[in-house]
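Need the bound structure for uridine-5'-diphosphate, inputs here:
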Amino acid sequence: MSDIKYKRVILKVSGEALAGKDGFGINPEVIKDLAEEIKTVHSMGVQIAIVCGGGNIWRGETGAKMGMDRAQADYMGMLATVMNGLALQDGLEHAGVPTRVQTSIEMRQVAEPYIRRRAVRHLEKGRVVIFSGGTGNPYFSTDTTAALRAAEIEADVILMAKNNVDGVYSADPKVDPDAVKFEELTQLDIINKDLRVMDRTASSLSMDTEIPLIVFNMNEPGNIKKVVLGENIGTTIRG
Ligand code: UDP
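Answer from helper R.:
Posting the output first, comments after.
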């Protein structure tokens, strides 16, 4: 354990990341690869909680643009995150990693309700905990959920796994050849420079909790391990 920098982590996996190259839905290869990566880190003794997004299935904003009631559309988004959570649990269990899913909206036949103390107990017992259902409230995001749960379970860091992007850039590196990658930023930089790493609510909560966030590329094998060992990959954002 001595070489491990971060012993209790929140891994934020966006819906987009789970869709992989398909751009929509759940890609089984991505789930399988991610489960293996998590397994490696889990076997090192790192306590891992995952917050999954839902944008690969549904986003509240999309529904609102179509004329739906925003809160209604957001509840659909929260349900989407539960589907992703179950898919991730399935992948992890196939890889032999004990896992519990907790939902912030009760659906006891499907998963446990979110209970902070129970989540911490699972982590202490070596189970990966998947937090799904977002915060349970419309108008929020799963980035805010990651910031919130990280504070609640006293995580050392939030690892923001990105799909084929290795950090935060000054501009979109796929479009602008002059885009530069930042090694370190603060949450205030994210807000002031409008860098869109996470939404403002999530950034401002992370500013208050001072839990660092590392943005890194999850498609590079071994990266989650590198991050928990403290290797300088990706962009670190301080509170
Ligand atoms: N959502 C919500 N409250 C939350 C978390 C999520 O209403 O606390 C809804 C919201 O509609 C959002 C959708 O769930 O669009 C999917 O979450 P998010 O967009 O954060 O997923 P990601 O971008 O990470 O895939």
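Comments: Residues 163 and 228 are 18 Å apart (CA to CA). Residues 14-16, 53-55, 59-61, 74, 77-78, 80-81, 134-135, 137-138, 140-143, 145 surround uridine-5'-diphosphate (CB under 6 Å).
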